[in-house]
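Lab notebook, design round three. We kept the backbone fixed and only want residue identities now. Task for the bench partner: fill in a sequence for the structure below.
Input structure tokens:
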């Protein structure tokens, strides 16, 4: 009787629908409610168990707290075991009952595929948690876990696609002989698997499948060989179309696929794109997504955050600041989302040359965030110094050394070197402003600056006369000229920067970056494409061991790829 009661309750629960509701709750700032929902039903099905584990994983990713990361690992492994086990108590009983009442193997196929996808998802999240430890053994372990996950995604994607084709054929022609398809162990008997179930499963697998393609397509070229050896693909367009499919599906990961697309179009692409054309297309796509989803997520701090990102990239900095402040307010219970909003508020304030507001945002991040206090301390210091408080800035630069934790992290290494140098030199307001403009350049935020602010930066840079900063000053001036569309002056400044040997010790990245910038400007003119290509190759091959080398290699790779499309090699 108790068993019947459980089955009765379970029968009324559409776990796919419930899981989607749970994720939607999560995105509408109902973190607590979502967590409660998944925990309440976590033993009802592998899907609900996965939902609970995903919320746990998200918490770990947002805090980086050791305890939460361990909990997430345990939860994910529990879900994995549940999916791999044939004896799952209540779930198995329910499945057996369903099996008897529904035409046999269809449910089994859907269930098996669902479990395989969940296991692959769990593997990916476990690999991510492994990578966070930043130890060689963890990287190797993570790599192999990912390889296993990729094989599962690939197999499931292929099986589901075949099943969909079969389903379409079956619908269009009842007479068709399906005996050959039935030889495939994942293909059900006629009428057993609905098109709707397959669409949801395809959406489910497309999230991981698409993310794999997208992320691998952005890997620096020198790592690509290793990745290809592991058997990973990297097709950007395939990744985007899979994520788009997932985002329109009825699977619980549909909202996550939507967020992944927004992240790609508003964060990743602008950072790695060669020019504005790619970015512009991405922004239009992001705006369309935000418009479509506005009704579903009226209170979502994350969607408000992405709205701010779009506005920032469209140089509507004041509107972006309003959106980020709104998102900050909406995320009153979510410290981690508050932090990404504060980060953007800090950046928008730097773009506006409003150093005091930027200082306040970064100082709060330095004190509250667990991500990279060293980097936040450096940003706090340069903004504080740029605002005129040089004694305060000097104290903060001393903190950078204490907060330096991740020796292999290039951002922290850069922050440490810069802070040490400014501390020893006794910072001046001009040098701190130079530091602000430098990070705006390195993080590709100069194109978001208004013409008047760029003009102001130009004037402020002219007043920097420190010989060791001459190359950096010219690189930044060249970038400002480039933003103004003044290519002649840009080329001149980049050439001066590329020739600066004196500053090479303190600003090792200036020469390769200047060569790259020169190459990009020259590529834009048909008559100088050859010269442009030569500068890109020089940037790639003549320099090594400088700050943000990987970042530049990705950009050179992107520029070369564009060149191949335009000029066949």
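Proposed sequence:
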């Amino acid at each position: 009787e108790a068993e019947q009661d459980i089955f009765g309750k379970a029968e009324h629960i559409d776990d796919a629908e419930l899981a989607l509701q749970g994720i939607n709750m999560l995105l509408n700032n109902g973190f607590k409610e979502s967590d409660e929902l998944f925990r309440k039903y976590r033993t009802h099905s592998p899907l609900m168990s996965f939902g609970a584990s995903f919320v746990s994983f998200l918490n770990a990713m947002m805090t980086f707290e050791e305890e939460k990361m361990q909990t997430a690992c345990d939860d994910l492994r529990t879900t994995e075991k549940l999916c791999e086990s044939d004896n799952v108590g209540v779930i198995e009983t329910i499945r057996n009952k369903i099996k008897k009442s529904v035409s046999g193997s269809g449910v089994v196929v859907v269930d098996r595929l669902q479990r395989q996808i969940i296991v692959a998802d769990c593997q990916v999240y476990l690999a991510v948690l492994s990578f966070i430890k930043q130890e060689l053994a963890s990287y190797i372990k993570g790599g192999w876990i990912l390889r296993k996950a990729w094989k599962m995604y690939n197999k499931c994607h292929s099986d589901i696609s075949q099943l969909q084709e079969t389903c379409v054929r079956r619908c269009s022609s009842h007479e068709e002989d399906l005996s050959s398809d039935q030889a495939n162990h994942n293909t059900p008997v006629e009428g057993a698997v609905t098109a709707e179930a397959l669409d949801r499963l395809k959406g489910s697998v497309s999230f991981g499948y698409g993310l794999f393609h997208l992320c691998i397509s952005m890997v620096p070229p020198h790592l690509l060989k290793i990745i290809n050896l592991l058997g990973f693909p990297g097709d950007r367009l395939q990744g985007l179309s899979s994520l788009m499919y997932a985002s329109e599906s009825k699977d619980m990961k549909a909202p996550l696929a939507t967020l992944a697309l927004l992240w790609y179009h508003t964060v990743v692409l602008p950072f790695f794109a060669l020019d504005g054309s790619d970015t512009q297309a991405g922004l239009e796509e992001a705006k369309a997504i935000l418009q479509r989803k506005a009704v579903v997520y009226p209170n979502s701090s994350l969607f408000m955050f992405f709205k701010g990102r779009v506005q920032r990239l469209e140089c509507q900095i004041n509107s972006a600041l309003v959106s980020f402040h709104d998102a900050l307010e909406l995320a009153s219970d979510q410290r981690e989302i508050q932090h990404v909003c504060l980060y953007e508020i800090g950046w928008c304030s730097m773009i506006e040359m409003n150093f005091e507001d930027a200082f306040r945002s970064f100082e709060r991040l330095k004190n509250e965030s667990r991500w990279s206090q060293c980097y936040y301390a450096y940003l706090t210091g340069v903004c504080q110094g740029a605002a005129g408080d040089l004694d305060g800035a000097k104290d903060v630069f001393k903190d950078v050394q204490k907060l330096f934790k991740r020796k292999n992290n290039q951002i922290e290494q850069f922050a440490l070197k810069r802070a040490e140098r400014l501390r020893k030199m006794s910072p001046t307001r001009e040098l701190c402003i130079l530091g602000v403009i430098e990070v705006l350049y390195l993080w590709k935020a100069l194109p978001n600056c208004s013409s008047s602010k760029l003009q102001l930066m130009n004037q402020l840079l002219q007043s920097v006369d420190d010989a060791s900063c001459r190359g950096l000053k010219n690189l930044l001036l060249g970038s400002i000229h480039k933003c103004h569309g003044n290519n002649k002056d840009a080329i001149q400044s980049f050439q001066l920067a590329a020739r600066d040997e004196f500053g090479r010790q303190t600003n090792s990245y200036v020469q390769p970056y200047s060569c790259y910038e020169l190459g990009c400007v020259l590529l834009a003119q048909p008559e100088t494409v050859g010269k442009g290509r030569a500068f890109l190759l020089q940037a790639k091959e003549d320099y090594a061991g400088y700050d943000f080398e990987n970042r530049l290699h990705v950009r050179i790779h992107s520029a070369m790829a564009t060149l191949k499309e335009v000029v066949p090699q």
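Keep this in mind before ordering anything: DSSP finds 28 helices and no strands in the chain.
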